[in-house]
Amino acid sequence: MNKPKARPVLSQAKDLEPGLVVATYGRHCLVETPEGRRLICHPRGKKNQVVVGDQVLWQIAGDEGSIEKLQDRRNLFYRQDEIRTKSFASNLDRVLILIAADPEYSESQLSRALVAAEAERIKPIIALNKSDLSQPFAQAWERLAPYRAMGYSVMPISLSPRSPVTDDGVTALCSHLQGLTTLVLGPSGSGKSTLINRLVPDALVETGEISLALNSGKHTTTSTRWYWVPALDGSAEDGAARTALIDSPGFQEFGLHHIEPTRLADCMPDLRKHLGGCKFYNCTHLHEPGCAVLAQVETAEHPGSISVRRHRIYAQLFEELGQQRW
Fold this sequence. Notes:
Elements: E1 17-25, E2 28-32, E3 38-43, E4 55-61, E5 64-70, E6 76-80, E7 85-90, E8 94-100, H1 107-119, E9 123-129, H2 134-143, H3 145-149, E10 153-156, H4 170-174, E11 181-185, H5 192-199, H6 203-214, E12 225-228, E13 244-247, H7 269-272, H8 308-323
Parallel strand pairs: 3-5, 8-9, 8-11, 9-10, 11-13
Antiparallel strand pairs: 1-2, 1-4, 2-3, 4-5, 6-7, 12-13
């Protein structure tokens, strides 16, 4: 399946104004002008192909606006299963994957989100919440050892108001987000809303305003929204880039059907560094003799640099992505 592409609709340039898409819902979206004004806009065409983070050109259409052109994207973070494609956001600098020590997070879901970020060359950050729960956190932190070994930034944080800790890790996490546009991703209950409300005190008010503007009521809780984070920005005089967080809906499944099976190993850093050393050029890294990847999978006799769990996830994903193409 092909990556969803935007279909820009051209108009006379003299009437067009630049804008940033900060919220979407159905056939509506909210566009912010460079001056900070926000207005409802409607994309042309049968399908709404704009996503939060898109840079667009629009023009006035009555009391609202009409999106006439979608500017080129640097990237597009999305998931795809057998039925549909779900686009989260575009033009990202980071994807913050927030998981919790309790309840136990799904390593398969974590790996899928990381693969999707790698496929778009977006740098991911992993934040493990509930560092105040000593034993569950220690066990979860140990499970993340392979990801730290791959070079991923893995940050311990505590967002629990019931058990505050002296250093909750949020300040250290923010140092990785300053001046960047970051999509906050994670399953329900991971602490996304708590983090957003901590860094953007007016988030609930702003969400209500967006809901009212788009006339979408409670349904905006399942949409993606852009928030500026002034507290993380430098002074207005130093010209520093602004900090933005994009809040996404929680998810239970994360399809990767837009990724070719043969590309999967290149999207997994622990496997990627051994590519090119296999005996066969079309090696699947599953059973072939002389496979450089299989030679690095840990065993009782051989420590290896690829954990058994990670290679098992690779094998499951490879089979899943191969089956859906037949």
